[in-house]
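> agent: user asked for a holo structure of the chain below bound to zinc ion. Plan: (1) validate sequence alphabet, (2) canonicalize SMILES, (3) run complex prediction with ligand conditioning, (4) return tokens. Step 1... ok. Step 2... ok. Step 3 dispatched.
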Amino acid sequence: MPELPELESIAAKLTESLVGKTINKVQVLNHIILYGTTVEQFENKLPENTFSSFRADGKFLIASLTNNLEIVINPMLTGRIRIAGKPRKPIKEDAISIVIDERSLWYSDRKRMGRVYLIEKGNYKEVADFYGRGPSALDPDLTLEIFKTRIKRHNGQIKNVLRNQKFIKGIGNAYADEILLFAGILPFRRRATLTSEEIQKLYDAMRTVLTKFKDILMKRPLNEIALEKRDFLMVHGKHNGICPLCGNRVSEITANRFKTNFCQTCQK
Ligand SMILES: [Zn+2]
């Protein structure tokens, strides 16, 4: 599941390659991921328009076009965005192909749970779960003070609070584990039991971990980011692995099909 560091890197890569480029042809290969628009509208409204910007908004990607339209993508679990340098045939997972000169932009989705919207610019009420979210985890205006005030409104296990987009947007299952290892806090701790010092550690860990991972991803090409080979993770997905901070074994618990990894030595 792409999280904020992936989406911000993908937006930066697409900006570099596609801003100012004009769409030649659009093909919807699987309509199940389209929302609020028909295949015909999606295929006909886009050609001859030019990409003016790409940006990440939490776990959404927004592509703006010069004709006042926006494509909003919520990739959910398995949505992937790639660019092909030369024409290629679609594969089973492909859902949308956008041809731009000699290149093409592909949206693929193995589980087809992602959502792609075509909206009038800024009309985000068409987009499910867009409004009501908190500030971005990397928003420069999200100070420690604001973080401390906002977190008080959310109860329950701290990992669930971090993943709750209404608290802060952009953090998912994998990076929540990484942030909590770095902060030294067990994922199952109730938010209300955290001390003021621990909340500060959590804030610092959130900024450090997400910035570090984004810097790593920014050095990779777009198609590599899409593969989500997160070889830089310290604890998530490392069941029976070794905690890089203390050398002890990493623990794992599965709940609601989501895995949580943590270190019983480093996290209290
Ligand atoms: Zn450890």
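> agent: step 4 complete. Summary for user: The first strand starts at residue 25 and ends at 28. Residues 196-218 form the longest helix (23 residues).
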